[in-house]
Amino acid sequence: MIFFNSPNIMSEIELEIVSPKEVLAKETHVTEIVLPGTKGQLDVLPGHTELISTLKQGEVRYKTTSSSKSYNITGGLFAINNNKASILIDSLIATVTNLDDVRRGKEDRRK
Questions:
Q1: Is 62 exposed, middle or buried (0-12, 13-18, 19+ CB in 10 A)?
Q2: Is this structure's pTM higher than 0.70?
Q3: pLDDT at 7 over 50
Q4: How many CB atoms lie within 10 A of CB 57?
Q5: What pLDDT shows up at residue 52?
Q6: Average pLDDT for residues 44-57, to the nearest whole number?
Q7: What is the CA radius of gyration of the chain?
Q8: Is the four-CA dihedral 64, 44, 98, 94 of positive or negative sign?
Q9: Where are the domains of the chain?
Q10: Distance between CA 27 and CA 32 in Å, rounded?
Q11: Is the domain 13-110 a CATH 2.60.15.10 member?
């Protein structure tokens, strides 16, 4: 279920992903975030109501207006308020994958 906090839904989310060692990502044009919540998958779109959730091991994915990225995490916390989202992760299992590059690589191999 998706909840929106305003009739004037903004079209983009500001996102920051942080580990104990570094800022992994800082994006200003995010259109969708998918997270492994401890009670189930979270799908977050612009205008989502205020939320704080714990995260379990799994994949964090997000789309911007120009690309898609993914992180495999061990767990963490997620918060969103007024289209500003923060993901505080315990640690990474794998590095960032640019999903658009992966798709392009698969298409190149098919040719």
A1: buried
A2: yes
A3: no
A4: 13
A5: 97
A6: 96
A7: 14
A8: positive
A9: 13-110
A10: 12
A11: yes
Identify which of 60, 83, 67, 70 has the alpha carbon closest to the alpha carbon of residue 13.
83
Mean pLDDT, range 25-32, rounded to an integer: 95
Q: What percent of the chain has pLDDT over 70?
A: 75
Q: Are 31 and 65 in contact (CB under 8 A)?
A: yes
The type of residue at 19 is S
How many Å apart are CA 57 and CA 84, to the nearest integer? 23
Cα dist. 75→1, 4, 5, 46, 65 in Å?
22, 25, 26, 23, 26
Q: Quickly count: other Cβ atoms within 10 Å of residue 84's Cβ.
A: 11
DSSP state of 50: P
- In this structure, the chain runs to a length of 111
Least confident segment among 50-54, 60-64, 71-75, 101-105: 101-105
Coarse DSSP helix, strand, coil percentages of the chain, rounded to the nearest 5 percent: 10, 60, 30
d(CA 64, CA 82): 17
